[in-house]
């Protein structure tokens, strides 16, 4: 069996899906949530994963914190100064941070804005609790 064949399994070779997929337009289907000044979060919840578009305005900060969920952050636009444990790095588009559970981290922008995507596995419970219904799939919109 080739790598292509094993990676791209035929649908009939798999059990039926538990639920249908959906398309989400972050700009129109997801209401922004803010937990800190200058930060805007647009969370999208899957069955076992949470992906969040995070917009940092200039001079915005996500304070040092830790959580039980694993997190991967990908910078897409702008620059982000990121603390991971005892190390700090300046991240630019295409750079990624892998944050194991319970590792303290923080992020901030200086004079420019930044767009990054956070992925949490399992979904970050505290964020879901704070965001409430805004992360639930819309059943009436184009992303349904």
How would you describe what is shown here?
The strands form 2 sheets. The chain has a 5-stranded antiparallel sheet, with no helix packed on it. It has a 4-stranded antiparallel sheet with strand order 3-8-5-6, with no helix packed on it. It is globular. 11% of the residues lie in helices and 38% in strands. It has a single domain (21-135), classed as Jelly Rolls (Sandwich). The longest helix is centred in the C-terminal third of the chain and has 7 residues, at 125-131. Residues 137-144 have low confidence and may be disordered. It is mainly beta and 144 residues long. Strand 5 and strand 6 (87-91) form a beta hairpin. The protein has helices spanning 3-7, 26-29, 125-131; strands spanning 39-45, 50-56, 61-65, 70-78, 80-84, 87-91, 96-99, 105-108, 114-121. The N and C termini lie far apart (36 Å).
């Amino acid at each position: 069996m080739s790598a292509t064949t094993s990676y791209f399994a035929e649908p009939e070779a798999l059990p039926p899906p538990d639920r249908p997929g959906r398309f989400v337009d972050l700009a129109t289907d997801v209401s922004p949530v803010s937990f800190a000044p200058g930060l805007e979060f647009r969370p999208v919840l899957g069955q076992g994963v949470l992906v969040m578009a995070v917009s940092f305005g200039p001079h915005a900060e996500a304070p040092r914190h830790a959580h039980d969920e694993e997190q991967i952050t990908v910078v897409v636009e702008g620059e982000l100064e990121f603390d991971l444990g005892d190390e700090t790095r300046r991240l630019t588009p295409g750079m990624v941070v892998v944050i194991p559970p319970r590792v303290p981290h923080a992020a901030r922008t200086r004079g420019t804005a930044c767009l990054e995507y956070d992925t949490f596995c399992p979904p970050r419970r505290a964020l879901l609790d704070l965001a409430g219904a805004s992360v639930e799939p819309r059943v009436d919109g184009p992303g349904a």
